[in-house]
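May I ask for a single protein's sequence together with how it folds?
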Amino acid sequence: MQEQLGQASEIYDLVVTFLVNYSFQILGAILILVVGIFIAGKISNWLFAFCQSKNLDITLSRFIASVVKLLFILMIGIIALGNIGISVTPFVAAIGALSLGAGLALQGLLSNYGAGLNIIVTRPFVVGDTIHVQGVTGVVSEVSLATTILIDEDDVRITIPNKHIVGEIIHNSGSVSLVEIDFKVAPDADIPQLLETALATVHATEGLDSETSALFGVNKLSGEGLEISGRVWVPTKKYFHYKYAILKGLHRQLQETGVPLVVPVQEVRLQQD
């Protein structure tokens, strides 16, 4: 018991001596760290706003601001450690060893980070673009170092690890998607008038302006009739909304102009002995 009390007394004396000798240095280091983190945040926000004012891509702007903030905090941390007399030199070897072990343990995460950096630098797509990759389609909502987030029309949030994007075939249609329309009419239909009516119907669809890209034409000739195909580029965020509205308007216009749709007919004959 006496021995334990002696050890406790030695520890107490050591702590008191340390606080007496280094209390001001510790407080100074904490103050430097707090002020440095605050300044780093301000610099990061200012740099992000500056990049945006120069019309730089939002993903690249965020990346630059984050890297500058991280480097500034790292510099402040080194200054704070030096203020209390701790040299960072001995940590270099330890950091190297830990980095090797962490690299082996976090290969998947690091590969995502490397792929994310590749996406940010090469910019195969940016926030707001509509892309199709790995069997999913959506509007790019966010691009980080680890993941890319898509939002589809059903407001489903799709998170894709970046390593599954780099090296894959990416379909990027900007902010629009293609609506394909097919229907058949009688062989004697007035094709020029019909195509003009189809284009007018698209441009009259509520929410679409007269500059909306649309193309209609005869896709196939057959004994059953003429197959008319249409291609309309609509905003991805309301893809199905516009698709259904266009089909509804076309059906109404065909009825009003007296152009019947050709329905495939199959004749079945029953033969009795």
In short: DSSP finds six helices and eight strands in the chain. Residues 2-87 form a domain with the Helix Hairpins fold (CATH 1.10.287.1260).
